[in-house]
Amino acid sequence: MSGKVFLIGAGPGDPELMTLRALRMLQEADVVVYDRLVSADILDRHAPGARLIPVGKAPKCHTVPQDRINDILAKEARAGLTVARLKGGDPMIFGRGSEEAAYLMAHGIAIEYAPGITAAQGASSSTGVPLTHRGLATSVQYVTGHRQADKVLDLDWKRLADPDATLVIYMGVANIGQIAMGLMTENLPGSTPVLAVGKATTPDERRLVSRLDKLAADVREADLKAPTLFIVGQVVTLYADQTVTNLLEQAHG
Length: 253
Fold this sequence. Notes:
The chain is α/β, with parallel strands linked by helices and 253 residues long. Helices cover 29% and strands 21% of the residues. The chain has helices at 20-28, 40-43, 66-78, 97-106, 119-127, 157-160, 176-185, 215-222, 247-252, and strands at 4-9, 31-34, 51-54, 82-87, 110-114, 139-144, 165-170, 193-198, 206-211, 228-232. The strands form two sheets. A five-stranded parallel β-sheet has the order 3-2-4-1-5, with helices on both faces. The chain has a five-stranded mixed β-sheet with strand order 6-7-10-8-9, with helices on both faces. It starts with a strand and ends with a helix. InterPro entries: 4pyrrol_Mease, 4pyrrol_Methylase_sf, 4pyrrole_Mease_sub1, 4pyrrole_Mease_sub2, CobA/CysG_C, Siro_Cobalamin_biosynth, Uropor_MeTrfase_CS.
């Protein structure tokens, strides 16, 4: 008898931002295979008696390779169990959910999805900075600031350097200097405002207001770590508290 896999987006960290569907699936699962960024408050909502399997990855430290994660999901489902694959944010936005789904479908294993609020939306709601705003940004682009196996970051800088759009950068802390330079090379002004949000929607959330030409130095000085999201564009001018929550001013206060 074959079981099934629930591919669940846990949201950006605050348990209240989980969808009802995601919560229901988590509470129906016999086994929970979860990532490093899933908060304890969310994980604690699993069904009594459910078995927990951590498979978290950290930058340059993949303790459980993706192939092994795929095998775990398939093995547990083949044993007739309902498996919750619990991921932070939305599993279909830079979460490798589609890769896992393709593997499972190729092995005849049923999948159901629960989308999650992605980190960009979480950061927007917690800071009050919109991703689009009439007169400031008519579109929004999501991009990853990291390549698999630390490959060259060969992004389409010309397309991304759109002054009429908001650019949201995931997983970009390590490469933020290169990213800022790439955007400025394609004539995005160095004065473009940037809001960096670390651990968005959690009690440990940190914020940094900067500008593109000073961003790399400010991130280093503030010692921002992953997971940190960067919102680049004129929408950042709408941030209502640019001084009190500036990490550099806090550090020097």
